Amino acid sequence: PRPGHWNQAFLLRTPELALPRLESALRALAEHHDVLRLRYHGTAQSYGPAAPFPGLNVLDVRSLPAAEGTPEFTEALERVLTEWQSGFDLSAGPVYAVGYLHG
What we know:
There is one protein chain. This protein is an alpha+beta fold. It has one domain (19-102): Chloramphenicol acetyltransferase-like domain (Chloramphenicol Acetyltransferase, 2-Layer Sandwich). The protein is 28% helix and 17% strand. It has helices spanning 19-32, 71-85; strands at 38-41, 44-47, 56-60, 98-102. Strands 1-2 form a two-stranded antiparallel sheet.
């Protein structure tokens, strides 16, 4: 089992966002909320004062190799999202990811 692979994913539909402003807001959120810096070591929890922001994943869905609404599109999108959600490391971080899909 990979304990860092479990996650809660959700999607918010928004008008187009300015990526620099979004990334700045996410950095401020990570600096403000200790829980986003939590690390787990066995049964103990800890957090550091300067855990690096994991960055913003961005995908232009028009770059996927199939037309939206097709099974091939869905499979390609699921591969990208699974990759984004599979990089968590409970003891070293990151413990969360943020993605922005557009197009």
